[in-house]
Amino acid sequence: MKRYSAFAVAREALRHHLGWERAWRSPEPQKRYDAIIVGAGGHGLATAYWLGKNHGIRNVAVLEKGWLGGGNTGRNTTIIRSNYLQDPSAAIYEKARSLYETMSQDLNYNVMFSPRGVLMLAQTHHEVRGYRRTAQANALQGVETEFVGPERVKELCPIINLSGPRYPVLGALWQPRGGTARHDAVAWGYARACSDMGMDIIQKCEVTGIRREGGRVVGVDTMRGAIGCDRLGIVVAGHSGALADMAGFRLPIESVALQALVSEPIKPCMDVVVMANTVHGYMSQSDKGEMVIGGGADGYNNYTQRGSFHHVEETVRALCETFPMISRLKMLRWWGGIVDMTGDRSPIISRTPVEGVYINCGWGTGGFKAIPGSGWAMAELMAKGTSPLADPFSLTRFREGRFIDESVAAGVAH
Ligand code: FAD
Ligand code: PYC
C-alpha cells in the first residue's frame, strides 16, 4: 500500500492523478479462510483489522452482501461520545473514543475525527438529576464529562433557544472530547488497511447459509459459492436475527428503522453537537455546512431502509423550537437504516451456541461511536475466547439477568 501524504498529493497533482492505486483489492473468494467476518460495516471491518493487527490472524475474508459501508455505517449521524452510565458501557465506548483520536494516523486515512464536544441537553428536572449522576459516574470511570448550566450552554452554542415553548434548557451534560467523524471514511480506512494486510474484502457476496458439523462451524454458503472457515464472526446489525436463524439459534433482538436528514449547506453557525432528548432531536453541522439531523426510531419492527413520516415531522418540530434559526432551511436528503435493538439497549459481543461462531450486534441507534473499540473487543474474543471489554456483553446475560441497562441511562430517548 502506497502511503497517503502531503508529498503524494502534490506528486499526483503534478501528474493528473494517474498514479493513485486502488484503495483495496477486489479478489475472488478462496476455498477457505482461518476466519470469515460477515458484514463489511464499520464493526465487521474493525474486527478484521484488529484480528490482523493485534492477533496476527490475517487469512481472513470479510463478506458483504452489498457494498462496504452501505449499511448503517454509511447512514448514521456520526455522533461520538462515551458518556454512558454503566461501567462496562463506559469502558468500551471510551476505549472506542480514544481510538478515534488516533485513527487517522493509525490507518493513514483521514477519517476527519472532530472532537468538537457534545452537549446533551437537560430539559426536565429528572434529566438534570440523571445527567448529574452520569457526570459523577463518568468521573469514577475516567470519562471526561461535566454538568454545565444554561449560561454555559448558550456560550457553547449561541444559536440555541434556552426557553423553548415546551421545555426550557436547564443545563447539559458536556463531553468536550466527544464529536463526529466522517462515517464512510471510517469504513474505507479500515477496508484499505485490511486489504493491505492481505485480507480479502468481498462485496456483492451475500451469506445465505451457515455450515455446521458436530455443533461447530465449518463454513458458509454464499451467492458466490461455499467458503470454508474455522471461525465465523457475524457482524450484520439489523440482519443479525436472520443470520442467527441460519446458524440455528435465536437472538433477543428487534430490527427497526431509524432515520436522519440533512439540510442545504449554510455558513458555519454551530461548532458543537447538540442532543435534545426530551423534545427528541439532535443536530450538528457537517464540514460542508449541512445541518445533520436525526430523530427517533420507528415504533414497529421492519426491514425498510426508510422511516415513517410522522417521525420527521416530530424531529423537525423539536429542532425548530430548540434552534429557531433553522426553521426556513430546506432539507436535501432523508434516509433510514435498520437498527438492531436489544431489551437493555446494550450490544451483544459474544460466543454463541455454535462452536466457532461469534456474534457482534445490538448496537442499535448508537454503534458508530463504538466501531474501533467493538472491533478491538470482538477480535480479542475471536482470537482468545475471552476479552475483558466484551465479556460483560455476552449473550448469557439475558438468561442470567445481568442486564447492562442503558435504556434510560444512556440518555438517548430511542
Ligand atoms: P452496518 O454498517 O449496518 O453493517 C452491516 C453490514 O452487514 C451491512 O453492510 C449489510 O449489508 C451486511 N449484511 C447483512 N446481511 C448480510 C448477509 N447475509 N451477507 C453479507 N453481508 C450482510 N450511532 C452512533 O454512534 N452515533 C450516531 O449519531 C448514530 N446515528 C445513527 C443514525 C441513523 C439514521 C442510523 C440508522 C444509525 C445511527 N447510529 C448512530 C447507529 C450506527 O449507525 C450503527 O450502530 C452502526 O453503524 C452499526 O454498524 P455495523 O457495522 O454493525 O452495521
Ligand atoms: O448514540 O449518540 C448516539 C446517537 C445519536 C444519534 C443517534 N444515536
From TrEMBL:
It catalyses: sarcosine + O2 + H2O = formaldehyde + glycine + H2O2; sarcosine + (6S)-5,6,7,8-tetrahydrofolate + O2 = (6R)-5,10-methylene-5,6,7,8-tetrahydrofolate + glycine + H2O2. Its main location: cytoplasm. Its cofactor is FMN; FAD. GO terms for molecular function: nucleotide binding; sarcosine oxidase activity. The keyword Iron-sulfur does not apply. GO terms for cellular component: cytoplasm. It comes from the Bacteria. The lineage of its organism: Bacteria, Pseudomonadati, Pseudomonadota, Alphaproteobacteria, Rhodobacterales. Belongs to the SoxB family. InterPro entries: FAD-dep_OxRdtase (IPR006076), FAD/NAD-bd_sf (IPR036188), Rhodanese-like_dom (IPR001763), SoxB (IPR006278). GO terms for biological process: tetrahydrofolate metabolic process. The keyword Cytoplasm applies. Keywords: Cytoplasm, FAD, Flavoprotein, FMN, Nucleotide-binding, Oxidoreductase. Gene3D superfamilies: D-Amino Acid Oxidase, subunit A, domain 2 (3.30.9.10), FAD/NAD(P)-binding domain (3.50.50.60). This is Sarcosine oxidase subunit beta. It is an enzyme of class 1 (oxidoreductase). Residues 36-79 form the Rhodanese domain. PROSITE patterns: RHODANESE_3 (PS50206). It is found in: Cytoplasm.
